[in-house]
Amino acid sequence: MDEHARGGPRPSAAEFLRANNDALLEDWQQAVLEHLGDKVPARQPWLIDHLPELLSTLAGAMEHGPEALDERLELMHTAARLDEGFNLGEVAKEYALLRRCILRRLEAQGQWLRPGDLTRLEEMLDRVVTRTMTFFWDMKQRILQTLDRLSEATLDAPDMETLLERLLTRLMESALTVDTAAVMMLEGDALVVRAAVGLGTHEVKGLRVPLGQGVSGQAALERRPFFVRSAATDPRVLFGPLRSAGLRALYGLPLMDGERLLGMAYMGSRTAFAFSDADMLLFHAVAERTSGHIAQTELHAREHEARQEAERSLALLDSLLDAAPVGISFVDADLRYLRINGTLARINGHPVEAHQGRTLREMVRGDVVESIEQSLRQVLETGQPVQDSLVEGPDPAHGRAGAWRADYFPVRTPDGALLGVGNTVVDITEHKRAEAALQQAIDFREELIAVLGHDLRNPLHAVNASAFMLGKSPDLDTGARRSVDRIRKATARMTRMINDILDFARSRLGGGIPVTRQHVNMVELCQGVLDELQVVYPERPLTLEVHGDDLWGEWDPDRVTQVLGNLVVNALQHAKNDTPVITTLTSEPVDVVMRVCNEGDPIPTELLPRLFDPFKSGQGQLPEPGTKQRSLGLGLYIVSEIVQVHQGSVRVETGPTQGTTFTVRWPRVPPPEGDLPP
Question: Which end of the chain is more exposed for a tag (fewer CB within 10 A), N or C?
């Protein structure tokens, strides 16, 4: 059939490509998606960046011959595909899809090209595909060879600077137009040249570029490559040696470890104003490999430092464990020894090395193993420490019975996982023996005090009764009566001392001071005590003041009179001569308040916190001869104990002008159990 039979003249291949440029682009993109199975591609669509220019180049080649095909387009496409990580089959596939789209478009339009154009179009596509495959393969081989040489440079694990210089040297050997190359490492807020080869090697080493300054500092800040066409004249190039060397092309890339900036690498040429795509692609591969080696070297350095630090820490721990007088061990969840020091190993009766990996029952014998194992398992089950556990048993290290205080605590990882149990053991054998001896001495002393106090009361009662009868005799002269009064005062004082000793012994021997509560009147009790004391101290005024009507309560009358007697006698001893001692009783809703006041020197401040301790003198010092008699210092202690038994309170107020006042609060009825005294 002729042209008119087919509907008009046939278009040329060039005309067809230009007229259907946009349609072919859409067809090709659809073909890519169909090939991917409608999956989202991991990379950018294959030929989309170069396809429009490729169609235009093919149209020109159809009109002017194969010479119109631009090799640079294929080289750019090849470099882009390699940089994206494509393999040879993927590159061939994208051209096959383009060929299919052209044929389908011709078929869909029902057009025939001019005779011979379809064949020549096929030949042009074959030429493009062949050259692209060849370029791709050659560049791939070149990169692989360079990477192999880079790997060889790392076999002997060189230091960082040597490694970087070797990698840069391999780059210069593979790229003939490269005259200089360097790696700048990020240190703080600046890039520092750590390795350089070629021109200006010694001049640029150690130079610094702050981030954000110069072409390299700005590129590092923005995490992007940079290119300078004439480094010798560009003011953005801050390194003087590069300008003075007459460099032209200067290309740099950021060295990245994921999102972390490691530094920058650059290469320069003194002969070329621009690097070829092959050289730039090679530089990308070298930079990527260099980033990996830098990150790996840093990781190894950190691991090595961490290992050394761990070894130092373990050495210090071992030294501490060996030198510690305390037994220390760590066991795992199966109660196997992971670490033990010499102190605890000697207690167990086995060498340190014999414990490693052995169980508790294998290393510890006797009845003590049960209690130790129970404590260890309690820590493992609850995750809580067990403290102050007493362990008693044979001591192989000393050949005698021993006693130890053991503490058990959980050992965890930083994230909280339980690894096992730590154990500290302190030898308290001598402490226990000293404690037992001390307790025995205390018990003997207090029993002796109790016995002496009890046995002294009988002859003292006889002396007091005889003095009382003697004082009734009408034949006594003044001197004799004064002697009888001194005897009565001395026996009264001795009676109080013996009573205090007996009460102290009762409180310390564990029985406590006994009380028998009765419904009594506080005024009557106090008046009786003051009347008795007035007989003993006729020269001293003893006054009772009462405020309120209801002064009844549930108290032990003997103990109340003992408290008041001790307070009044204490006030008499420390008051100024001939000054009165005033006792005041005040009725309150819950308590009856007793106050004993005297005029005298104030109690020193440093004595107040321990005023009610046993064996402490009221003034804290020995009285001067001829003035005040020395006491045992038990009176105020007994006062405090009796008041506490009645669940009341006692306090003291003292000052240079107000004298000293002891205030005792007596609850009328015992407060409920658990309530604190006011």
Answer: N
